[in-house]
Design goal:
Length: 488
């Protein structure tokens, strides 16, 4: 199965890998607009079709910024996945129930072979689909909802036995119906649209005329790549996808001191091993050739101790690092400003002379990157992006009146803002923003509710490795750039 990011372009190419990315389904044809190679406008990176529509956030200063994609016929958001026997790309709805094909989940029979769906969500055969994902090397299939099951169902216990269990009150069980007919989902193809020194840029083009960025390709090494700070502290396009195993010594290590990472790969035979920087101030990612397979790995516990990790996730293989590959051999990218809309700038990166890719928004007044989120009134605002976050229930005093924020990452220049999840409206996710105060080193308290009583303020342990901050003055939501969401 191919994993396709369809939200902000930033998620596709800057610091986020996609485990399912592979290169074999590209047809290397130029995209709409003629021969690949010319510089693209920002709007070229998200184009609506007759059915697949880009949801964008707009401002009064002319900004159009992508959010997600909607299938206007099915009236659902969708993402691109390889599916079916031919492995073609289809824009399929999100939030589907999974039909198990072995392992955990619910089954119709006492042998736990026919997977079913048990759900509390209302089910309508006209707009509900199920997904069956068999495993490595087999593309998922999508099915309509089948008949409701009124008898007991089966599930595997921790010992592996298949036991009969009743369906809980308020839940219903369904069999998978027939595989969805051709045309139910919009089909797409990956096509090359730009070329430069050592790289090409590829888009997904839907059969309905929609188009969006898919990946950058390192043509020298024949692998997809993402923009990351490399070990020479320059941003470069480093390998990703099924060609690449990823390592972090704190998660999995080949030695009992958890200092040498074990690189893991799922459903693939990697050629590269990449360890990404854990400290933003330190050296960037290092790339290695893949070494020998590892059958025994170690990992750190919550307390920081390194111990043997006896279990591995399904379909996961671990490797040692081979010889390091010089950072200078990978294509370098330069950060640049692409376009200004009022106080917001679209910032991106260039690789070579022709490739210019939009990545994020920058608020020039606050001098920080920002992202559109709802404020307490439900209005979209471009809130400052920050590593300091407040959940609204951690405090610096025993009366729980002085909230604190915390950051789990190291920043060379500490963030100047705190983003807080506004808990005053639990029915909808909204946010508030504050200027960051001084680091807080004292006792931390948490507000909790026990039973039917009111909230109590109790002392809690500090998270190891986290930095706590006092909250300064609030930034008025109305002072932030307002956005409006619409479908193109």
């Amino acid at each position: 199965m191919r994993c396709i990011y369809t939200g902000l372009v930033l998620a596709v190419l800057w610091g986020t890998g996609c485990g399912g990315t592979k290169d074999s389904d590209d047809d290397n044809n130029p995209g709409p607009g003629g021969e690949p190679g010319g510089t693209l406008n920002v709007a070229d990176f998200f184009k609506s079709g007759s059915r697949i529509k880009a949801q964008v956030t707009t401002t009064t200063d002319g900004l159009r910024w992508p959010d997600e994609w909607h299938d206007s016929k099915l009236k659902k958001t969708c993402t691109w996945e390889s599916a079916g026997a031919d492995g073609a790309l289809y824009c399929v709805p999100g939030g589907m129930e999974y039909v198990p094909a072995g392992g955990s989940g619910y089954y119709l029979d006492a042998s736990c072979t026919e997977g079913i769906v048990v759900t509390s969500e209302p089910v309508a055969a006209t707009d509900f689909f199920m997904k069956r994902n068999v495993g490595c090397g087999v593309n998922p299939t999508f099915h309509t909802v089948g008949a409701e099951i009124t008898t007991s169902v089966f599930a595997k216990s921790s010992t592996g036995a298949c036991d009969s269990i009743p369906v809980s009150p308020g839940f219903k069980a369904y069999r998978a119906g027939p595989e969805v007919a051709a045309g139910t989902f919009v089909r797409g193809a990956v096509k090359q649209k730009q070329a430069d020194k050592g790289i090409t840029v590829h888009f997904i083009e839907g059969e309905d005329g929609s188009a969006q960025l898919h990946h950058i390709q390192d043509t020298v090494r024949d692998t997809a790549c993402i923009l990351q700070k490399a070990s020479d502290n320059k941003v470069r396009c480093l390998p990703t996808g099924t060609s690449t195993a990823v390592g972090n010594a704190k998660v999995a290590a080949v030695n009992n001191t958890c200092t040498e990472p074990a690189f893991y790969s799922t459903c693939g035979t990697p050629r590269f091993a990449v360890t990404f920087a854990q400290d933003q101030c330190g050296p960037g990612a290092k790339v290695y050739a893949v070494g020998a397979k590892v059958t025994q790995v170690y990992g750190t516990t919550g307390g920081g101790a390194c111990q043997l990790n006896p279990q591995s996730p399904p379909n996961t293989t671990y490797y040692q690092a081979g010889a390091e590959i010089a950072a200078s051999s990978f294509v370098e990218a330069k950060e640049l400003d692409l376009k200004t809309h009022g106080r917001l700038k679209i910032r991106g990166a260039s690789a070579g002379d022709k490739v210019q890719i939009p990545l994020t928004l920058h608020d020039t007044q606050l001098n920080t990157n920002c992202a559109f989120l709802k404020d307490s009134a439900g209005t979209l605002r471009c809130f400052p992006v920050s590593s300091i976050f407040s959940t609204g229930n951690l405090f610096a005093d025993a009366s729980c009146t002085k909230p604190v924020g915390l950051s789990n990452t190291t920043s060379c220049t500490p963030d100047r803002y705190v983003l807080e999840n506004d808990v005053s409206n639990p029915s909808d996710t909204s946010y508030r923003a504050y200027n960051a105060g001084q680091p807080f080193t004292g006792t931390v308290y948490v507000s909790v509710v026990f039973g039917t009583g009111g909230p109590r303020c109790i002392q809690t342990e500090r998270n190891p490795g986290s930095t706590y901050y006092q909250l300064g003055s609030e930034i008025a939501a109305t002072s932030l750039v307002q956005g409006t969401t619409k479908l193109d």
